[in-house]
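Methylated-DNA--protein-cysteine methyltransferase structure dump, as promised
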Amino acid sequence: MTGMTVHTTIDSPLGEILLVGVVSETAPGGTALASLSLPGQKGAAAVPEDGRRDPGAFEEVGRQLTAYFGGRATGFDLEFTESGTEFQRGVWRALEEIPYGATTTYGEIAERVGTSRVGVRAVGTAIGRNPLLVVRPCHRVIGADGALRGYAAGLERKERLLGLEGALSRD
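structure tokens r here:
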């Protein structure tokens, strides 16, 4: 059973979330999360042909997401599967370091991963390929001018997540 691909959907304030994971004896709840995607998301995961639907495999993920959306949690303690290039993984690790309720810019992420300002576009592309929306907080990355830019699941959802976290300035 370890290594089997499983999936389910759960309801959220952002719409139905598709969760895909791999059964793992070491992961909290027994499933390492491979992707979390939302309806209409660019590059969203599809239901895997070789996987099986198993809502029970995602009970811990669901519990943590419910706590987050309910304002009772500021982070996640989940195991993820390894994916992406070395550069993408570096960018994604930088995303995981952005505190709840805070934002940073694409340029600041580029600096953290040792990329020049010219590499900001590559950083944006890597962020756009983040397979773990919400739990790997790419929504916390904004433009240098403070504007909300690029979010694979749509700017309205990015704004909702930042609002939930109290990260939007009120003018």
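Strands lie at 5-10, 17-23, 31-37, 52-53, 104-105, 141-142.
lmk if u need the other ones
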